[in-house]
Write a structure and sequence with these properties.
Shape: globular
Helix content: over 70%
Number of helices: 11
CATH architecture: Up-down Bundle
Distance between the termini: 22 Å
CATH topology: Rhopdopsin 7-helix transmembrane proteins
Order of helices and strands: HHHHHHHHHHH
Mean pLDDT: 92
Low-confidence stretches: 1-5
Strand content: under 5%
Number of strands: 0
Number of domains: 1
CATH class: Mainly Alpha
Radius of gyration: 19 Å
Length: about 260
């Protein structure tokens, strides 16, 4: 019988991190319920780049979703590289999230309105679930990842219901911001034995840059001489943010 060489202090830190994650999720849920509602801005669908191309409206905001499609297909074709079926299931979820994000965002930008926006956010929810569960599995273990997956899926569904039923966008905002804070916190944790050592800090940095471009949509459009809008750039950078997770998963056979 082999002795367990994992330091007890390491397991203690992992338990504390998992407990802190539970408390944080509970805090977000309470804030979503108790805090004043936030309405979606009336001009939300008024993106800077309104140009059509080849008869396709808002063409660059549509075409800039192609990286999600390409990365999703890449991941699906390389899933056999992920030998452990538990990791493979989480990788599959992320790849499907990439494909659903491509489809949902493309449908939305063809005709931006609240109804089509629901498809966009549903695709993003699947992708968020895959990313956060993979990051948690890498740092805290597969059991913790299952809890995160269930929490994000249920919390995301509830937040989208709240938005559609009462025009309260706060739960969805908290889900996105909370997810990024969790990802940033996990970046400071050491990868578990058998993990993939994802560079989560890069994932956070790329996505933060993507959100900055989204917030400066009109400014970047005019700054580029009306070649590219901030929202189109945001799509590309958001897809790049997935690479620090996708490439270690599908790039070698030496991880279980």
């Amino acid at each position: 019988m082999h002795a367990n060489t994992t330091p007890p202090r390491y397991w203690h830190r992992q338990s504390l991190a998992s407990f802190a994650l539970c408390l944080f999720g509970l805090g977000l849920a309470l804030a979503a319920i108790l805090a004043p509602s936030v309405q979606q801005p009336a001009h939300y669908h008024a993106f800077a780049d309104q140009r059509a191309l080849l008869g396709i409206p808002h063409a660059l905001d549509v075409f800039s979703n192609l990286p999600f499609l390409l990365l999703g297909l890449l991941g699906l074709t390389r899933l056999a590289q992920v030998l452990d079926p538990r990791w493979r299931s989480l990788a599959l979820l992320m790849c499907l999230g990439l494909l659903f994000t491509f489809a949902g965002s493309s449908v939305y930008h063809l005709s931006p309105n609240d109804h089509s926006l629901l498809y966009d956010r549903l695709g993003m929810l699947v992708l968020f679930s895959g990313i956060l569960s993979l990051a948690t599995a890498d740092r805290l273990g597969l059991a913790a990842a299952s809890g995160v997956l269930l929490t994000v899926a249920l919390g995301g569904a509830a937040s989208l219901w709240a938005w559609r039923a009462s025009d309260n966008l706060l739960p969805w905002i908290l889900l996105q911001a909370g997810g990024m804070l969790v990802l940033a916190s996990l970046a400071f944790c050491r990868a578990r034995s058998g993990g993939h050592g994802f560079r989560l800090g890069l994932c956070v940095a790329w996505y933060a840059l993507a959100k900055l471009c989204e917030l400066t949509d009109d400014h970047l459009f005019h700054l580029s001489g009306e070649l590219l809008s901030g929202h189109s750039i945001k799509h590309v950078l958001s897809a790049i943010a997935v690479l620090p997770l996708l490439l270690p998963l599908v790039g070698s056979r030496n991880k279980g």
